[in-house]
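Lab notes, practical 5.
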Amino acid sequence: MPRMSTLAIEGASTTNGPITKYARGVGGFLGLLGVLSLVPGVTTNYSGMGFYSSEAQLFGLFTTSIVAAAVYLTAGACCIAFSTSPRQGHKAVVLTGNLLIIVAIGGAGLVVNPSPPLPVNEASNYFHLFLGILLLLGSVRAKAMHVKQYGVF
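Output from the prediction step:
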């Protein structure tokens, strides 16, 4: 039988289970994305970076700005901060995935928004959409692994 570190009223609370590891990995990736958005060599047209509207592009593909970098850094920090318990880590990753999908839908013009809060282009929209879907699918997989390993969620 697998060893559980602690047992809470809601179920097994492990700080090293599949969900918490996944949440920390997602947080690290988003934090890295936020930092790379502010590095001049990785971000092309860095001189065109603005607070909201920007001409700077991360890896020469994805439009980025100071606000976009701050959003990535904040989302990454939240995923890492909430990865202390399986339930909180799962909620943080699901919320982040849903927000990325909403950003993709808003950037694609499917929702009427005269001035989007984040700079977007077609590549950024697809990136946010696929990243959001991957986060949701990964969180479902991590939750299933957690339930299989510990029996409860």
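Observations recorded by the TA: The helical segments are 18-36, 66-81, 86-107, 122-150. Confidence is low (pLDDT under 50) at residues 4-11.
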